[in-house]
Amino acid sequence: MQKSDSNLSALLKTQKINWKRVQKMLEFHSIKPTVYLALKNASAEKIDADFFGQLNREVKVKSAHNIFMVAEIERIKALFNKHQIQAIPYKGLTWSKELYKKIFREGNDMDFLIDKNKVFDALKLLKEDGYRLRHL
Question: Under 8 Å CB-to-CB from 50, ≥6 apart: which residues?
C-alpha cells in the first residue's frame, strides 16, 4: 500500500464523511474516476457501500463513454486529414491518454487546434458529418 493510500485509509477511519456532499463535489469537479481509484485502492471499510456502488457504476459508464470519445477524436482527425485540414487534438481525453496511459478524467468534448484559415472548412465538414454547433 502506498503512503497516499494509507493516509486516505486513516482519514476514512477517523473522520465522519458526508457521502452525499462528496457525490455533489465529484459531479461538480468531474473527478469521479480519479476518486474512485483512490477509494478502491484505500480499501477502507468506512466507505459507504451505496455511495461506492453508485460511483462504481457511474465510472464504468463514463469509462465506456471515454473509450467512444477517444475513438471519435481519432475518427474526426482522420476526416480532417482526408480533407487537407491539419488538426491537432489537445487537452482533455487526448492529454489524459498520453500522460497517464489510462483515462482518469471525465471528458465530454473534443478539442482540436486548427489553422485559423481552415476553421470554417472544418466547421462545415463537422456539420456535414452530423455535428451541431452549440457554442460559437
Answer: 19
Q: What is the pLDDT of residue 1?
A: 46
> Where in the chain does DSSP place strands (E)?
87-89, 112-114
In sequence order, what DSSP letters do the residues of 73-96 get, joined into one string? Answer: HHHHHHHHHHTT--EEE-SHHHHH
**pLDDT value, residue 135:** 66
What is the CB neighbour count within 10 angstroms for residue 100?
11
For residue 136, CA distances in Å to 83, 120, 123, 132, 133 come to 22, 11, 10, 11, 7
Alpha carbons 20 and 84: distance in angstroms, whole number: 49
**Which is nearest to 85 in space by CA: 129, 122, 116?**
122
The residue assigned the cell 466547421 is 123
| Residues 6 or more apart whose Cβ sits within 8 Å of residue 70 | 93, 94, 97, 103
pLDDT digits (tens, 9 = 90+) for 49-72: 999 999 999 999 988 888 888 899
pLDDT of residue 100: 63
